[in-house]
Sequence to fold (231 residues):
Amino acid sequence: MDRIAAGQMPEGGWPASAEGAVPSVDATCFRLAELDDLGSLRGPVVERALNWLAAAQRGDGTWQEHEALAGEAPPWAMPGDPEATLYLTSVAGFWLTAAAVEADPYQTRSPYGEALARAAAWVVSQLHPDGTWPSFLAAGWHSAGLLHQRQFFYESARVQMVLGERLPDMAPADVASMAAALRRVNLGDDWLLQNARKRLAETQRIDGGWDSNEGPLFDVNITLTALRACR
Fold:
């Protein structure tokens, strides 16, 4: 946690690289996920990050990376790209939601309510009638969590149906990440999470671990994520 805190910029976000001069939405969400993994989605470091994230929201409810990051941004965070915009909006909205649920599980209040309402409304406007979304796979489960918590239950359910249909073809790392994320936002023990756990049981290795999308060095990371998804 000290290492993560040391890399935080004065604005509250984290840079995309060690030499970065501007905060990155994608990097900040990644650091919030790391802090959540460590059981520390509260405190001054997190509060500064969340405040920066909320302030970085655009007028239409979306998040995009700063134009200065165009030369180094991965496809899912490319400034101005529609698919990246939906992904970043879903992920940023998700982590503001997860932090609000952490502080108040019953969501009787949220300091980010207006930002989340704008984000959720924009995400809903991007969904196709069949529940699919024009972006990366992970945008699906992050948007489902955001929409469920903002009481767009029908829209969230449509996205979850698509995720359920894609579940048999998902890599174990994606299944684990999806289930672990949705557990953070009071989704309950619904059919999608139950089926995700079954899929994880089917893909677990003999040694008890799971394969990462990033290679053997990251197998421990995804195994820990799978354990969080199943607890």
Notes: The chain is about 55% helix and 0% strand. The longest strand covers residues 14-15. Residues 21 and 184 are 31 Å apart (CA to CA).
